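Lecture 7, part 2: worked example. A protein chain together with magnesium ion.
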Amino acid sequence: MQRQAPREDFPVPTVFDNTSSPAPKSTIRTRVTDSDSVEIQIADNGPGMPPEVLQKIFDPFFTTKPVGSGTGLGLSVSYQIVVDKHGGRLSCISAPGEGATFAIEIPIEQKK
Ligand SMILES: Nc1ncnc2c1ncn2[C@@H]1O[C@H](COP(=O)(O)OP(=O)(O)OP(=O)(O)O)[C@@H](O)[C@H]1O
Ligand SMILES: [Mg+2]
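Predicted complex, written out as structure tokens:
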């Protein structure tokens, strides 16, 4: 393997090279549904997920982050709060390169 000598005059980048991915963007939509729930949709323009990841995202301890940087609990705790505690729904639509859209639906009035 050949090594290149370090160049003293190499320009130090002052901005992060973001040319390969678009500027991060999230879009939040809210609505009242026909079934007297509030729905909050959060869409991002991130990398999205393949189906084999998507089907596990609400599992406790499932993470695709490098070892030591994610607990994999964020979405499973969210699921417990939205679905188990509030009787609502939590879902996600995503595909690779298509971003991800999460939908949180919570009943306006708690069932007694
Ligand atoms: N907006 C998103 N776009 C693409 N993948 C996502 C998105 N949100 C979650 N995921 C996928 O779902 C996995 C589980 O998410 P979750 O929030 O439960 O854990 P985590 O983010 O990996 O860890 P932690 O929440 O502890 O930082 C992530 O590792 C990632 O693979
Ligand atoms: Mg998380």
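Residues 26-107 form a domain with the Heat Shock Protein 90 fold (CATH 3.30.565.10). DSSP finds two helices and four strands in the chain. Keep this in mind for problem set question 3.
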